[in-house]
Amino acid sequence: MTQESRPYGFEFNGRHSSEFELRVLDTKSVTLPAKRKSQLQLPYRTGYIDLSNLYGLNTYDERAITFPCKLPYGRSDLSTLNLKLTELMNWLMKPTGKILLKDDAMPGYAFLAEVQTAPTIEEGWDFCKVTIVFQCYAYRLKRCYDDVWDTFYFNLDAASNLEVTVNGHESILLINTGHNRVRLTINCSAAMSASVNDTVFALKAGDNTDAYLELMPGENVVNIEGTGKVKFKWTEEVP
Predict the structure, then answer these.
(1) Cα 19 to Cα 33, 126, 135, 136, 216, distances in angstroms
(2) What angle do CA 208, 177, 180 make, to 5 degrees?
(3) DSSP character at residue 16
(4) 121: buried, middle or exposed (CB in 10 Å: 19+, 13-18, 0-12)?
(5) What integer pLDDT is reported at residue 54 of this predicted model?
(6) What is the rounded average pLDDT for all residues in the chain?
(7) Which residue of 9, 54, 67, 95 has the smallest Cβ count within 10 Å?
(8) DSSP string across 169-232
(9) Cβ-based neighbours of 89, under 8 Å, separated by 6 or more
(10) Among 33-37, 125-129, 206-210, which stretch is predicted with the lowest mean pLDDT?
């Protein structure tokens, strides 16, 4: 079944919900992440001191996505029903920790999600209602964009030059349209050096990552010294 012909659903743990004959019902729900507030009340002072933006960025609680689904098996065929439910549980509950979840309704985005509570099963004679709840990392994940306009959404995306040829020195503007600082990967054809937001990094040939090699939300200036081709890659995080 091609992606264009399959019914609406979600992809998780390497498989699509339609492979299990699940059909997502109209009552699907998504909770948006709430801001996590850290407030301190001082004696003899009215109100609170808000420490939430101590590091310059908002923090958020996790979100939940609930998929109520119809499974076309019920008590009229208990042996097949139990087999299908076992397959579902193996698919949904096997991963350890959060992994990628893709909702067909949100192309271009992904979640880090885990099924932490067992799905609920409501048995009927010819079908069952299976309700699956994914506990998700607060931010949605979105890949960075270059200037390929067929996948570009002008209201939300910003184009960055993701591949450059450096001959001595090059200054590149990278725009992180997300709401959180994110890890930057720099791939070099030869050893070079980079200055990212005033921090200098020695780069080897191949992929370069570092705990401090990050892009802040908004505009980031990267200065590259050396000779060769350089590619940039990161995943943005949006509420």
Answers:
(1) 30, 19, 22, 22, 39
(2) 70
(3) E
(4) middle
(5) 61
(6) 87
(7) 54
(8) EEEEEEEE-SSS-EE-EEEESS-EEEEETTEEEEE-SEEE--TT-EE-SEEEEEEEEEEEEEEE
(9) 118, 119
(10) 33-37
Pairing of the two strands 29-30 and 140-143? unpaired
What single DSSP character describes residue 147?
S
Cα(78)–Cα(222) distance, rounded to whole angstroms?
61
Note the pLDDT tens digit of each residue in 35-54: 776 666 767 666 666 665 66
* Separation of alpha carbons 186 and 196, rounded Å: 11
- What is d(CA 85, CA 5) in angstroms, rounded to the nearest whole number? 24
* Chain segment 139-194, per-residue pLDDT in tens: 999 876 544 444 444 444 566 778 999 999 999 999 888 888 899 999 999 999 99
- The runs of H, that is alpha helices, within the chain are 78-93
Cβ distance 153 to 129 under 8 Å? Answer: no
Confidence (pLDDT) at 147: 46
Vertex 14, ends 233 and 231: CA angle to 5°? 10
Distance CA 195, CA 175 (A): 16
CB 147 within 8 A of CB 207: no
Nearest CA among 16, 30, 31, 22 for reference residue 121: 22
Taking the whole predicted model, whether its pTM rises above 0.70 is answered as yes
